[in-house]
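User: Sequence for Amino acid/polyamine/organocation transporter, APC superfamily (TC 2.A.3) below. Tokens please.
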Amino acid sequence: MSNKLFRKKTVEQIQHDSLHVGGGGLAKVLGVKDLVSLGIAAIVGAGIFSTIGLASYNGGPAVSLLFVFTAIACVFTALSYAQFASTVPVSGSAYTYAYVAFGEIFAWVIGWALILEYAVSNMVVAISWSEYFVSMLKGFGITIPSWLTTSSEAAYEAFNKLNKGGMEVLSTSERAAAMTYQHAPHIGDFALICNLPAGLITFLVTWLVYIGIKESRTASNIMVILKVSVVLLVIIGGAFYVKPDNWTPFAPNGMKGVLSGVAAVFFAFIGFDSISTTAEECKNPQRDLPRAMIYCLLICTILYVAITLVLTGMVNYKELNVNDPLAFVFQSTGLDFMAGVISVSSVIAITSALLVFQLGQPRIWMTMSRDGLLWPKFSKIHPKYKTPAFATIIAGVVVTIPALFFKMDFFVDLTSVGTFFAFILVCGGVLYLDHKGISKQSKFRVPYVNGKFLVGIALIITLLGLYVYGDAVLNEWTSLSFADIVKHKSLTIIFWLTWIVLAIASYKFNFSTLPIAGILVNLYLMTELGASNWIIFAIWLIVGLIIYFLYGYKKSRLNMK
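Assistant: Structure tokens for Amino acid/polyamine/organocation transporter, APC superfamily (TC 2.A.3):
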């Protein structure tokens, strides 16, 4: 049984299945410019228009450094993704790469985790789009009834809270939700409440993705040009209103405050891996995918750092705990016209992000279906549109229904957990490719920096630095009980143990330093996420494993062979 769990697919098998399973291949229409556009569409989405405010509030102007740090973590990972993409130019992203490097059970776990990254995060993005869209319409004097723009879950919870504790225990948003429940149309005791804009935009984007990659590419390119133009306008225009005094203190809450925004900041970057899901629709994937990943990361990092410095320079960081920080800073300086432009552009920006993620999810399901791990219907290609038709429809349904009725805010951190997990396995997969000699057939390779001594030396230097300068950290550890350490510091312990193991393995096998840096940085960022997210993620993985053993384990094409 263990042999079957870790059975691997060769690059040749994967490429063969991509052409002969499910009714043929996809339309190859994407060039490097289109891929960069899709990457920017995914990365410069809701994050730059919303979560950047909360991150700046917690960390101050120093959050700009967090964007740099997170981008560096992503660069190590992007290089690993790029090598895999040039070796296995097939849709499926980290799922496919894990199948080649680690075997079927790891591939399934990654595929299941990617559902969180794509489908669940799109629920959050759709709800965020709805908030911006409703706000934009109000700016034009158009008001949609609140029972058509509120999640039924939020309204029901607020109404119950009102009945138990009265109006004074409710926040402003909860009061609005409770009033919505009271004034909404009812059928008996059932209130007719839904977030209609979130459902409609998901439906429209799914329809666009369904009818073809060319149409999706054109729409994405147009939206990216518009939103990047607006972001540049904000940076250039806002620079004239920057007050350097607002950058002091630079890190008011120390590194702890800066790192508290790691989930939100990383959530803003995760879109770069969505490019790899379009590998089969690229004209020259082995050349263009690596270039596109690096280009879009570089462009987006510069934009994020610049806009963070402008925001925190225009107003004090303490004022940025708002849902629409870009519009807020221009309203506070009397530039209402700019605030209106930002409101419209934010709707466009979030639409393009929704498009790219809705494009990626069906292609991962399609690849899993080709391997027999999901129902064969998911791999069927539409004869006219050359898209994974059934998988696209299901992805639309999976996102639309929760977006209509549920509030999904808590899934932001949970999405990051699944993404970190995938990133670590991709970086580890490159070490496997190098060790087994498979990298020789890669048209792009992660630059080799021998880690024989570097990884161990870096570990020793870090431990010495922690001993000399980390009094606060050491005092925190000594004040914790054993139970508290197990509960709150388990991941930190795993991080240090992993570094020790990698240092020994690097000395023994001459591993490359850059993929190891990717593993360690991503694992460290994982330690900054809350324990509750890990508990939910563990439950999610257990459910996925049950599905695998009930269906995928028996139906796997490798098992059939």
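The CA atoms of residues 264 and 397 lie 26 Å apart.
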